Automatic annotation (TrEMBL), chains A, B:
Transmembrane segments: none annotated. Residues 4-319 form the Isopropylmalate dehydrogenase-like domain. One of its GO terms (molecular function) is isocitrate dehydrogenase (NAD+) activity. It comes from Natrialba taiwanensis DSM 12281. Keywords: Oxidoreductase. Pfam families: Iso_dh (PF00180). InterPro entries: IsoPropMal-DH-like_dom (IPR024084). This is 3-isopropylmalate dehydrogenase. Coiled coil: none annotated.
Length: 323, 323
């Protein structure tokens, strides 16, 4: 079956690492057709819109989207794109790679972040000069959908629910209770941890945790914390999964300091492309990409962020050679 | 001038570390009168109320309160107590001590956490079986009060504003803009960072930051993250500062696994007592306590959490001996 893949490089190093990941996909020769579209600061400057209608429509109709990065306009691009693919979960693995400096090399976590609600779908008002409000919503249905995904994701293992239900008793409480109840129905074990306690404990010993399900903002902050433990955002992939389609993006940004120099590390985007392959049922190809990235990270060549002097294309070619 | 100090040991090791800190204060012989009151799980079991009216009133009238810890009922105790002392800022230093194992020994941060608003003062509703909402408020006035405190706190140095205004544009936006404007009026430099980026960056290099002002929930999570970097909650003090009165508490909890054994580390509560001394203008005495704690941590005796076999009172006596 042919799959339509939308490719949205965006700004900065997005323009370098996204084509690199497409090269890797092409080398595997799956039945993909690629269509490119614009988003981000550059197109906003030209047209006034960071996310052109056509780009939204493309992501909303493609089987999968590969997104690079956006600059100042990141929130205006990525939040509607997550919506375009009807994504209910943001999957964020945070794993340290052998041969890469990490604060906590033993870190190997996956965050399953609720991707539709919380403050991200909050309604804000500036009521008076003094007062602004934000109303966030939590639903049983979104919590249930995340929980069902989590149960399938962990298979027979358990997972952890991170939340702040001691303060947000109704909203985070509903999230926690719903997720725990779904897991129990399905015979999947869960434990729970307050998000602040998680922040302390994951630094002290990240091996205490494995798969962590959380509300949207908690998932944002805690997965970025885990990124710090594995040595930075540079190597982290992510997947925004929906029922019909999905969007894959590196967690890093546009890296304006090195953009245009051809030395950006393509690994995070290439690993995101591996998650795309997995989503479209190319399991073997996905495994091959993961293995090729891992051995390239361990043996080189390496881009400057990892202490080497290789270019983006040196690394991309080395990965392709190992497929 | 005589100062009235409320002492609320609470549950678990709160019953051991709070009297230890009072001993240290008594050894300095300031003009303090101490009045003890109950709060927490134990009193809730007896009376149905985790925070008895008399305890609230005592904290609301004393010059300063020293609080230990509460168990399951922590939120029902500490949130109203912060309110009792009209606290607008929670000061949370996170510093690694020489001789104490830390993930990032170079960490030396102070969080200034807005202490009245955000989701902590949120109004929650369970609208339908499916839907719960939370409305949080941010005011210019509370942001301004925090900012004024921050400017005095850093003196001529600058500080960092951590927020998530790219998503919470009105609420965190109002917070950020107000704090930045107040600092500018007063000639204090600020920079800003998104709270998720802060989580990554502080792991990679905590020396990038110094004093960090944040909204309530961000302050909760980011300061607990910093606690992880310095080796855990065990040594972290905190101060809830109001205009007329204040409340001081270790960041750690009740440690039920070791409660009653007389081996709890009293350092965090004793450092909190040093912050109390400072607040009441006993600057020299505060410095003496800080110095005595630091040298005891470096040279021992040490409680089991730091690899020693000393008791709470061994450590307390060692600190008192060095005053
Ligand atoms: C750009 C921003 C809106 C986004 C988020 O907060 O979700 C980013 O931080 C992320 O985690 O992908
Ligand atoms: C017990 C809880 C309500 C409290 C908070 O979230 O403020 C605690 O985590 C803290 O940081 O003091």
């Amino acid at each position: 079956m042919t799959h339509e893949i939308a490719v949205i490089p965006g700004d900065g190093i997005g323009q370098e690492v996204t084509p690199a990941a497409v090269e890797v996909l092409e080398a595997l020769d799956p039945e993909f057709t690629f269509t490119e579209a614009e988003a981000g600061d550059a197109v906003a400057e030209k047209t006034g819109k960071a996310l052109p209608e056509e780009t939204y429509e493309l992501a909303a109709s493609a089987d999968a989207t590969l997104f690079g990065a956006a600059g100042e306009t990141a929130a205006d691009v990525i939040l509607p794109l997550r919506d375009a693919v009807d994504s209910f979960v943001n999957v964020r693995p945070a794993k340290a790679y052998p041969g890469v400096d990490a604060v906590r090399p033993e870190t190997d976590l996956v965050f399953l972040r609720e991707n539709t609600e919380g403050v991200y779908a909050g309604h804000e008002d500036r009521l008076t000069e003094d007062v602004a409000t934000l109303t966030r919503v939590t639903t049983q249905s979104a919590s249930r959908q995340l929980a069902e995904f989590a149960c399938e994701y962990v298979d027979s293992d358990g997972f952890t629910i991170a939340h702040k239900a001691n303060v947000m008793r109704e909203t985070d409480g509903l999230f926690r209770d719903t997720v725990a109840a779904v897991a129990e129905e399905r015979g999947v074990a869960t434990d729970e941890v307050l998000m602040d306690a998680f922040a302390t404990r994951v630094c002290l010993d990240p091996t205490q945790f494995d798969v962590v399900a959380c509300p949207n903002l908690a998932g944002d902050v805690l997965s970025d914390l885990a990124a710090g433990l594995v040595g930075g955002l540079g190597l982290l992939p992510s997947a925004n999964i929906g029922e019909q389609r999905a969007l894959f993006e590196p967690v890093h940004g546009t890296a304006p300091d090195i953009a245009g120099e051809g030395v950006a590390n393509p690994a995070a985007t290439i690993i995101s492309a591996a998650m795309l392959l997995e989503y479209l049922d190319y399991g073997e190809e996905a495994d091959a990409v993961h293995a090729a990235v891992e051995s390239t990270l361990a043996e080189g060549p390496r881009t400057p962020d990892l202490g080497g002097d290789a270019s983006t294309s040196d690394v991309t070619n080395a990965i392709i050679d190992q497929l």
